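User: For a reading group we're discussing how well predicted structures match intuition. Take Transcriptional regulator, contains XRE-family HTH domain. Before you show the prediction, I'll give you the sequence so everyone sees exactly what went in.
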Amino acid sequence: MARKIDTIGARIRYWRMRRGGMSQAVLAGLAGVSQSYISQVESGRKTIDRRSTLVAIAAALQVTVADLLGQGTEPGDPARERAAERVPAIWSALIEIEDGERRPLTRTRDELAADIARSDQLRNRSNYPAMARMLPGLLLDAAAVGGTVLAQVAYQASTCLRHLGYRHLALNAARVAVTAAEDVEEPAWLGASRFAYAQSLPIESAPLAARAADRSLAELQAAAADERVRQMLGQLHLAAALSSTVSGRPDVARDHLDEAAREAATLGDPPDGAGFNGCGFGPTNVGLWEMSIAAELGEPGRVIELSRTVRPQVLAASNRQMSYWLDLGRALAESGRRDAEALAAFVRAEQAAPVPFALNPLVQNAVLAMAQRAKRRAVPNELRLLAGRLGISLAA
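Assistant: Thanks. Here is the predicted 3D structure of Transcriptional regulator, contains XRE-family HTH domain, as structure tokens, for the group to look at:
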């Protein structure tokens, strides 16, 4: 049954009223945007496409970006609710591991390896609720073995939790992964774990994420003869590029993108579409990150231009394919005059990775903004169907 979504705009208005009835003009001044922009966002006619804008508005309202996005709090979503049932057990396992406790293995080494591979397949398909059901026991058994086994499972846990909206727990899992990789001095897994750490930091900590990626790049350079390490160096450059963009340092971001592109040109796309730890590093992934960075810079035309040169289907990870169609859809929707094309892109994004698509608050708000624009001429059936699959009611 469709539910009434509490939009980002509605949350902004709620917190604005909680701050002594702060006017739209005052909020706009504090956040560095126009009053008309705040008005359109609150009414649902416009969505927020830039992370830096979310950070600025959240800071002006003295709340977190997660508060504005409703991450981890939006009721009624079946995928999130199924996963949420296992989140306390995952948290408990992470606390136990961080505290140094270790339990005996409950499965054989072969069974553990098979279950880790199964969890990785679920990650590749972006089936995070199914991953969440596996992770509590998998984490505890991986901790009994330690080393790269624990680093891999903790990395999986960090990815799963982040996509479900539990960034604070994703950060805990990333720290477990880093410690495990450091214990066995395994550079490739250390690079992967540090990448997970940078990705798990809250959006407000973009400067810290960029600095953390920089430190990891310097530390891992000595092991660059290992192709797996080179892939993770490339991923860390991409993470630093996006974080630097959010932090208002586009020149630094460009340098990191150029370094990633040079590394990718020598490696090529992974033949299996996955590469080390499923990161998929290569020219295609660089192109996808460049699209996301252009979106963050407020350059929808550049996003559309880049999309013509990127073939996301060469990568195995469904969330990378979703990223392509999602960034393209939001860019097409930006002008308000290409909503039919934007809708087609959103449908392709949903087909690529249904769970993270449905859980993405920016998707929900983009669909609602399109519906607001369409009301004068009646909402198209395709848009109504997409909204229904997201659990969004388009009733007045």
